[in-house]
Design brief:
The chain contains 9 helices and 8 strands. By secondary structure, it is an alpha/beta fold.
Amino acid sequence: MKKEQIKDTVQVPIHSGFGPLTTSQQVMGNRSLKGKTIIQTGGYSGIGREVTRVFAQSGATVIIPAHSVEKAKTALQGLPNIEIYEMDLIHPDSIDTFSKRFLASGRPLHILINGAGIMATPLRRDARGYELQFATNHLGHFQLTARLWPALKAAKSARVVVLSSFSHHMAAVNFEDPNFEHREYEKWNAYAQSKSANALFAVGLDKKARKYNVRAFALHPGIVPETDLGRDLKKEELPVLPRDEKGEPIRQRPGGIPLKTVEEGASTTVWCAVSEQLNGMGGVYCQDVDIAEAVQADSKSFSGVWPWAIDPFTAEKLWGLSEQLTGVKFLI
């Protein structure tokens, strides 16, 4: 990626030519990523594994920080250009150890995918007492990105891609009680808060980092039933991707909410990471391989991004809270 002119990106679709059923391979096309270094959390399961496959087979070196190194090795066996190292997003020392190891290699970091996450878990806390979904989905990635900043800057042109979710519409970040210490815990509210934080992080990071030609994007990958993200949910809470008699997916649920295959769910991540259509852009929320529409908070739509997930003032407030909770000064 060459250095591009800095410009503000409007939260309006650009009509990319792709859509909900576009696959990750269709987005990648014949691009070569040879010489590029990519770090991707969550890169050995679900849509993350598909993103890893597409990147690796396009020539990039893909580095996977993994809670379970052995599980990652098994899942990624046979793929070229893969490096796997131990890291756990809820353990700050683990994040620092991984980051120091990478920085010591002297390599620039061209693409960082903050893709790992947990969803709708029972109330759990990390060793600091922080609610686990907020700690894993947002705070761990905030610290990781901060520690890897020298390598992103050194790339001269880099992108950070943060996986958010349409579920952000259910809750904004509660700055008075982000860790559910003084309010009743509700698993979907906690998940939604963490996903709003993911989107806001991209807004805040892009504003600060764009002068170094580092751009950030958040995205909703779609509803992808055939992953293990919903492992804490009851069977009746899980959507099922229906298939026809030939085994081909039927991608509509009652009510018109589209479901996606893993290959389709990975497409927007790949697009945000490599598409030339986004050159010079950043700080926006994407879905269905396009920039999403900004909608009002009372919208009944099943798509788009709510105001509290893209507000720059809220993003700056979250930045300060994240530095406070992690104890990490993000020096840009």
